[in-house]
Amino acid sequence: MNSIDKQILAGLNQPQQEAVKHYKGPALVLAGAGSGKTRVLTRRIAYLIAEYGVNPGNILAMTFTNKAASEMKERANKLISEDMRSWVGTFHSFGATLLRKEAGKLGFKRNFSIYDTSDQKRMVKEIMQDLNIDTKQTKPSRVLNEISDAKNQLIRPKDYKVDKFNYLSEIVAQIYPLYQQRMKESNAFDFDDLIMKPCQLFTEYPKVKEYYNEKYKYILVDEYQDVNHAQYRLSQLLTGSENNIFVVGDPDQSIYGFRGADINNILNFENDFSNAKVIRLEQNYRSKENILKAAQSVIKNNSSRLDKDLWSERGEGDSIEFFEAATDKEEAGFIMEEAKKMNRSGRYSYGDMVVLYRTNAQSRSIEDVLRRNQVPYQIVGGLKFYDRKEIKDIVAYLRLINNPADTAALLRIINEPARGIGAKTLERVQDYAYANNISLFQSCQESEKNPELTKAYARKVIEFAELIAEFQGLENEITIDRLVSKILSKTGYESEILAKEGPKAQERLENIGELQSAMQEYLQDNDDGSLAGFLEEVALISDIDTMEDKNNFITLMTLHSAKGLEFPVVFLAGLDEGLFPHSNSMDDTSEIEEERRLCYVGITRAQDKLYILRAKNRFRYGESKYYAPSRFLNEIPDSLINCEEDGNYDSIDIKDNNNRNNNAKSSNYREGQQVIHPSWGIGKIKQVKEDKGTKLTIRFKDGKERELLAEYAPLQPVRR
DNA sequence: AGCACATGTTTTTTT
DNA sequence: AACATGTGCT
């Protein structure tokens, strides 16, 4: 064995080594939480190349997030000194890349757009309106869900069957075929298409399938417990006759059932491949024993599961701390105090801590308390950068420039900024498009010929089309970030923002500036630097991809986002019946079991310390409601838990006062004075008024004006 | 066409 | 409570 192989196998236990050394044929690695799954995956890639002499280009590894993919790639690169030329990426990016090459065979062009959920909704709504279906009675999002389910099941429009017991299905049966037809006319794929269409391609074109089977001889799939039927089919189709498919997963961590993930795919792997090698990784390297025990005592309440015996040598560790707060605010206060204490002790820094919750909405109260108490934090998910209006608008312009058939993009921006093209005009343009079987954009261009439009309105529409055409001419002349500048000035988007948005204007423009920086970064990393490439990256980016490591920040995220991550200290917030398990999942056994797996995922993120919290009263839907303790709490043996005594965490604001805010009086502030705030930086006081205490209006350097109460705000005067 | 105001809806999780 | 959507007025 040469030295590089030794390095690849170094520090691996017996079953891990067996997995890494696996060469040909099907293999299933049942990898318990924290058992070194990513390690096995990356090292096997390295081992295939270094020991078995496999050409890196013959390896295809698929993950669910870009973050997981880049981590895998990076780690494998380190093991073999060359820059690996294997494909490592997400299911969706693989699908997109494949379709970029093969779009023609399916009647699409390679400059296709990728529709996000709001584009999809827009299209469904349009179709429903055209068919005179009441969009209030039948919500487009429900229809869309049903279509998405069908696609994940690889049910094509013509195969979709009306279910008599499902009133929706009749409507969906009408809409689905039209939806797919319009997607094609728009030269666009949605997320589901990125998986479904490649399946279709491989099924309809055996030659194409053969080509890719030849190219990708070794298939690896991460998080196999979360693949849906379409993804399952895709990985089967990609697997050639040698059956070199290596999948890794943990049925106990299957948490995407709501998105079509089918846990049976992993449970039935041995049926699919009778000669499959099955390897179980049961040693946990992550958590202290108490944490592991708690996790197992919860998960064992699920009936349908493969039992496994996870163990750890990390020592017993501390008890799990449980705190029952009176309110969600107090829950947040407890987290803040505990985090501060640990940070002060020096044993853990803020970067070691994560707060996990079931729903994004829970982040607000926690955020508030952390901010007010100057505890640095970062949030994963929630309000996404690429979901901001100004970003989506600019991206829509770019999409239309890249793909003139992109109907959803056109509809978004035809009157943004307002150019006097209202609903009525738009309807006439659309009618003309349908009547003449041309794209909406073409219809715009030909508005002169449209008998329904008066000259003045036709002029406006044509001017819009000409503007887009002008940008299209620039596409290959200037870089994409410069193109955005052109759009900002030529469309009047920039002046419109400045004209009406006041203090928010600057923030919006800064966001667009941030988009341009992202573009510059993209140009540096990608030689071709094409608009299409950038748009694809934007479309497929996920929250977790943008999370930054280290830093001295507490991380806040949903349990779903936390999959695959680990932290020394975990705060599991909101263990209340109705919240977690969520009320929408409470009357269905299989959904409860998924909630329980989610709980298992949460607990097993913790390495050393686990805090579990709940609140008797929570503010939700704008009212305070009583909550009973989550059933999952009862499933953890008392012997593992230490109940925290009531502290007075609800009065944190008052404590703040004692700590430092003796400058709460108005006499301490004057208008025009400069102050510094821990999260918003330097600001200038615009106004001081007395209203339930001293209220300050401060304009911060980000351009936003905020009203703060002097009594509570952690402000410090700037000296000059 | 565009605004102000009113009403309705939302919160489960996401590539 | 926050936001999206809808309505009626100008």
Write the layout of secondary structure elements.
Layout: H1 3-9, H2 14-21, E1 27-31, H3 37-50, E2 59-63, H4 66-79, E3 87-90, H5 91-102, E4 113-115, H6 117-130, H7 140-152, H8 167-185, E5 188-190, H9 193-204, H10 206-215, E6 218-221, H11 229-238, E7 245-249, H12 264-267, H13 269-272, E8 277-281, E9 283-284, H14 289-299, E10 311-312, E11 320-327, H15 328-345, E12 353-357, H16 363-372, E13 377-379, H17 389-402, H18 407-413, H19 423-436, H20 440-445, H21 455-474, H22 480-490, H23 493-500, H24 503-525, H25 531-540, E14 554-558, E15 567-572, H26 589-603, E16 606-620, E17 623-626, H27 631-634, E18 641-643, H28 652-659, E19 674-677, E20 681-690, E21 694-700, E22 705-709, E23 716-717
Parallel strand pairs: 1-7, 1-8, 2-3, 2-6, 4-5, 6-7, 9-10, 11-16, 11-18, 12-14, 12-15, 13-14, 15-16
Antiparallel strand pairs: 16-17, 19-20, 19-23, 20-21, 21-22
This protein binds a DNA duplex (15 and 10 nucleotides) through residues 64-66, 90-93, 117, 136, 191-192, 194-195, 255-256, 258-259, 358-362, 364, 381, 415, 418, 420-424, 539-543, 558-561, 579-580, 582-585, 594-595, 598, 619-623.
